[in-house]
Amino acid sequence: MASRLRERLAVVEEALAGHVVSRAGFVTETASHLMSAGGKRFRPLLVLLAAETGDRADSDEVVTAACVVELTHLASLYHDDVMDEAELRRGADAAHSRWGNHVAILTGDWLFSRSSELTARLGPEAVRIQAETFTRLVEGQILETVTPGPGEDPLAHYLEVVAGKTGSLIATSARYGARFGGATPEVEEALTAYGEIVGSAFQLSDDILDIASDSGESGKTPGTDLREGVPTLPVLMARAANDPADARLIELLDGDLTDDDRHAEVLDLLRKHPALDEARAYVVTRAQEAKAQLAVVPPGPVRDALEAFADIVAVRST
Ligand code: FPP
Ligand code: MG
Ligand code: MG
């Protein structure tokens, strides 16, 4: 299975390289920047893997769908790094650090348009799914900028953000794979539910890495979410613990974390805090839940690979 997926991913990779070429040389440079910098190709990989549950895993439509989700994801990263003021992505300069906000935002728009052109090739139902996915993705991103309403549980609010900004596109990756790979509607539904949970787990792992990893591992600047005041799972869990021993931590979290010394201190306190392991355990539980959706996939190498994929998400280090 692994070597087959590698082969199919190489086909996707070649197609992607073609899709970021513009008639304007400068746009080719800005649009290929993040793709060339690396990336796990998590979404295309899930498309390819999900396609293996059907009888048309080799179809060109599967490759097109894999490109659609990666280009959509890439587009969102150009915008995200502007909003998060993140200087590093995939170990390289974020696009806005190199070319400024205008070019970064417009390159994101351009990539999103390329992705839409490709979606049209997949037919009207794919266009509908794509539009619905993008609506959710942007809603999640907008909700991240507001605090929970009065009486709303901060963790529930946050999980809604995560499901929108990340679960949506990863669910669609699994759906496209099943659909264009020729799986049954029942399997397509199950894989969509699986993708939704795996997607949220993936984002929650990302939150944990923002605190636990160094930039050598993640290719990003640690503590970016904290600096931007974006709540994440370990922080919400530490707050919910309501432990008097956390007085200094809470004071720091409530204050200005753009100050380098305060930022370093809070990062250090969180790295030692039991909430970090609690968050990790939560993500492992979500991975189990994702695997439980796979009951309709016949036992065998494809189901094993989907299970392994969910497990890797829960314990990922990059
Ligand atoms: C990463 O989250 C961000 C997302 C998953 C989605 C962002 C979506 C948008 C910015 C909307 C894009 C709109 C268009 C038109 C393309 P993160 O910041 O928590 O993760 P990170 O650590 O990888 O930065
Ligand atoms: Mg970000
Ligand atoms: Mg963000």
Automatic annotation (TrEMBL):
Cofactor: Mg(2+)
Database matches in PROSITE patterns: POLYPRENYL_SYNTHASE_2 (PS00444)
InterPro entries: Isoprenoid_synthase_dom_sf, Polyprenyl_synt, Polyprenyl_synt_CS
Pfam families assigned to the protein according to its UniProt record, in alphabetical order: polyprenyl_synt
Keywords from the UniProt entry: Magnesium, Metal-binding, Transferase
Keyword Amino-acid biosynthesis attributed: no
Protease as UniProt keyword: no
Family indicated by similarity: Belongs to the FPP/GGPP synthase family.
Protein name according to UniProt: Polyprenyl synthetase family protein
